[in-house]
Every structure is written in C-alpha cells, then in structure tokens.
Amino acid sequence: MDRNEQLDQVEDVTGFDQVDQSGYLGEPGGKSAEVLLQQVADARSALATAVATKDPTGVSRALDELEEALREAREGGIEVPPSTSQVIEQND
To answer: Biased-composition ranges for Polar residues (predicted)?
Structure first.
C-alpha cells in the first residue's frame, strides 16, 4: 500500500476530510502516518534490544511504548505492517 492509499484509507476509516499530503490526520495531536509508523518501528527496536540484553525494566518500558504507539496508529486508522520477524515466522 503506497502513501496515498494509506491517506485515503485514513480518511475513509476516520471520516476526517482534513487528511492532506503531509499525512495530517485532522485530530488532536494530528501525527502523520509516517510519524506513527516510525514510533512503532522505534518501539519494536527498543523491545528487541531490551530482550537481547535481558533487561526486564527495559522490556517493560519498551512494551508500554509499543502498546501506546500501536494504539495511536490504530486510532488514527493507520495499517501497521507486521514486524520483519513476524513475517519470517509466518513464512516458516
């Protein structure tokens, strides 16, 4: 799905007609699709690092960040692709 299709989907799902080429969602906070997807990617990376270093506090913090990022994306009508590891696992 390309960026314009994502923006169209956001507009269809949310009913916001204020979605423009910058990805503005037309809601309080108005984060763009790119910003929301980057937050999810960053949170996934932080979680992977915390797990790899066996840092329970880091895992807890990273899970909270990931849940928040996924919630914001879901509320913004953004389709979040699975992580690379999920794609690999599904193909096995």
So the answer is: 82-92
pLDDT in tens, 44-76: 999 999 999 999 999 999 999 999 999 998 888
Whether the model pTM is above 0.85: no
CB 27 within 8 A of CB 14: yes
CA distance 56 to 89: 24
Residue 24 lies in a domain: yes
Instruction: Note whether 79 and 9 are within 8 A (CB).
Output: yes
Question: How many domains does the chain divide into?
Answer: 1
Residue 72 tokens read as 């914001």
